[in-house]
Amino acid sequence: MASISGAQVDALDLIFQGLRSKSHDVRLQSAIDLQRHVSDSVHDASSDASVKLWEETINRRLFDLVHSQSNAEKLGGILAIDYLLNAEGEGALEAQRNMFRFYNYVKTLLPNPDINVMLAASKTLGHIAAVGGSTFGDHWLDYEVQAAITLLQAEKQEAGRYAGVLILKELARNSPTFFHSYIGLVFEKILVPLRDTRVIVRESAAELLAACLEIITLRERQAKSPFLVRILQEAQVGLKMAQPEVIHGSFLTYRELLLHGGMFMKESFLDAAASILSFKSHRDALVRKMVITLIPTLAVYDPQTFAEHHLHQAMAHLLTQLDKPNERSVAFIAIGHVASAMGSEMKPFLESIMLHIKQGLQMRGKKNAPSEEPIFQCIGMLASAVGPNLTKLLHDQLDLMFDCGLSEPLRQALTAIATHVPPLLKTIQDRLLDLLSVLLSGQHYRPLGAPASILRADSGSKDVATADVSSSRTLESFGRLTCRRVPPVLPHVVTSQLVDRERQTKGTCTGA
């Protein structure tokens, strides 16, 4: 077996230089290169040389990275460890031998003053638990959980509490079988982070709760787990308190119970929905926004009961939020998700929704104009939900939609419309051909042999010819349509039908 060559050492020098970069993309590529290097190159070395390489080069440099004063270098070290866990061949054996060392490197960053460093470190800790946690012995998880619980209860609400939540969340996600015995302990302490004054801590605590609920619903047969009963009662109590952070924490609990608690919320559904909607005009903006985002969660959980008891009240509220600049985007998306759950039950609200969509698109380029992406997402979900019921209302909006220019959100909306509202397929094809003709030639599209008088004076794409069109990204996505280049903004069936229409209109092309 050969020793480690100078060329390999030089390659590692370049890799670790990249891991110190301030650019995430450079660090990511360097981590990938390091994984590939230890998988493909190190196996050619002798055993002694390989051990020496890891001890004197890889491990030492990883240590330097995670203990650096630079957050970028810390992130590079974390990323390198994460990818080394997926090494193959001899590299995998060495990574396994160094697993506990990697664990200690990562744990030094939990807690850490930088949130991004803690997030990355916790995810890699979870990866270590999934790949090699069982090799650390029976007491390792017990130690980790107890230490994280201690951080969770720290009186100083700084980095420690957030780190404790992150650690527990990753352990629950990546070692669910072993973590199950600690569920009771976590539920005793989880109210602390769920009611923390910082949103990021509460959101992470909700993710921890979700991971615990997944474990409970998969491993416990009883319909009403005492853990779920307890956390629901705590959420109900929280809604009676005055602090906005406590109310928000209760809403997060409701959300996770609805999403991850199986049928547990069935009996409490009506009370939960009524309680949530009662806060729709709360003085706190985050609480009001949480009500908006919970409405589709309620609709998905029990569509029939929601439609019978709360749909009209909920939709009336969402429609009023479309007039408020700060709530408009989240309300459009919420309406789309409600439509996905309700289907034809949305018919009474279509005219009002489409009127707000029209008003939003007409504001393009003006002060306080709404973002187009949530509008297009809403349109796509509406089209999927109610299909041809939207034909006339959507037909009147197509010009406004194409005025916005080609974009990924528009592509997705057109895909949904073409798939679920077939009467609009030909109209969309015509708009696309005209739009692409303007993009590529500066002239409106005219079928071969058609008189100039049939051309529309305004194709709805007046701004597109001079727009960036997402630079080369949109143009690179263009494909061949007979002798024309068109973007794949519609599903395959639409493109095929466009080809057929072109052939029927102007015959087979004879040249490029």
Automatic annotation (TrEMBL):
Matching Pfam families: TPR_IMB1
Domain Importin subunit beta-1/Transportin-1-like TPR repeats, residue spans:
281-398
Q: What processes does the entry annotate via GO biological process terms? A: negative regulation of macroautophagy; TORC1 signaling
A molecular function (GO) held by this record is: protein serine/threonine kinase activity
Any idea which UniProt keywords this protein has? Repeat
Recorded GO CC terms = cytoplasm; nucleus; TORC1 complex; TORC2 complex
* InterPro entries from the UniProt entry: ARM-like, ARM-type_fold, DDR_Repair_Kinase, IMB1_TNPO1-like_TPR
Which SUPFAM superfamilies does its entry note?
Answer: ARM repeat
Mind telling me what this protein is named?
A: Importin subunit beta-1/Transportin-1-like TPR repeats domain-containing protein
Q: Which organism is it from?
A: Fomitopsis schrenkii (Brown rot fungus)
